[in-house]
Amino acid sequence: MSAVEDVVTEAPAVEAVPKRSMTLGYGTSLVVLAALILTPLFVKNFIIFQMTQILYFGLAVLALNILTGGSGQFSLGQSAFYAVGAYTSAILMEHVGMNYALTLPVAGAICFGFGFLFGQPALRLSGVYLALATFALAVAMPQLLKLGYFEHWTGGVQGLVVTKPDAPFGLPMSQDMWLYYFTLAITIAIYIFSVNLLKSRSGRAFMAIRDNEIAASAMGVDVALYKTLAFGVSAGITGVAGGLGAIAVQFVAPDSFTITLAIQLFLGMVVGGVGWLPGSIVGAAFIIFVPNIAEGISKGLSGAVFGVLLFLVIFLVPHGARQVAIVAQQLIGKLKKT
Fold this sequence. Notes:
Layout: H1 3-8, H2 26-38, H3 45-71, H4 78-96, H5 100-122, H6 127-145, H7 151-154, E1 160-161, H8 175-199, H9 201-211, H10 213-218, H11 223-249, E2 251-252, H12 259-272, H13 279-297, H14 302-316, H15 321-337
Antiparallel strand pairs: 1-2
C-alpha cells in the first residue's frame, strides 16, 4: 500500500455527521420554539436570567461546533474570542454610548477578523498541536486585558460595569424578560444561518476537509481558505455570544474569561454531541446547571462530584445528546408502528 493510500484510509479525527442529523425536524423545532417563548411567562426573573445564560452560552458552543464538528479543527481558545466580543460591546456601550443592539454586529465583525487572522498561522497546525496553540491564546488573553495600556478602556483588573437595557417602546416587561427575548431572537437567527451555512457549498467544503483534507484538496477545495473561514465564522459567532453575555451579566473582567471558560465550552460541545447543532443548547445547560447540582450534593467535594457526573454522561452516552435524540426517535417510530 502506498503512502497516499495510507493517509486516505486513516480514521477521521471527528466522526462524520449526516446532514439530516444536524438539525431537528420541523415538528420538534416548533415544539421547542414554543417552549422557549412561553416558559418565561410563568417563571421568576432569576430563572429567566438562567435561560438567557443558556442561550448565549449555547451560541458559543454552537460556534465551536461549526469549527470542530463542521471543519474538524480543535480549539481550546474560544474564551479569547468570547472575551473580545464581551469587551467590544461593553466599551462601545459605556465609553462610546452606542446602542447595545448595534454593538453586537461590531463585536461579531471584530472577532471574525481576529479569528480569520489567527487561522492563518494555524494552517500549519492540526490535531493536538492546533489545540495547544489555541490553548496558549486562551491563557494569554486575560493577562493582555489587564495591561495598563488598555486600562482606560477595559477597567484593568477591576473590570467594567455595563448598564442593563430597559425594554423598548414602553413594553410592560422586566429587563430580564426583554433581554431574554432579545437574546432568543438573535440565537434563532444565528442558528438558522449556521444550519444554512453547513448545508451550503462552504459547509460541504468544511465537512470534506474534516473527513479527509488530502481528498478535499484533490477535489479542488481551497483548504487554506475554508479552514481560516471556519475559524473566522466560529470566532464571529462567539464574539456575538460574548457581547450578549456582557449585556446580561452587566459586568466584564479579565478573570471571567480564563481557560476554564474555554474548557467549559468544549465540554458543552461534547455533551451536546459533536456536529449536532441543537445539542449546543443541551451542552450549555449542562455546563450551567450540573456544577450547581454537584455543589448541592457536596459543597466540599463539588469538583469530584462533577467529575463523576461527567464520567457517567460520557460513559453512558458517548455521542452526547445526539445519541439520546436518535434513541428517542427510534422509540417513537416503534410506538407509531404498534
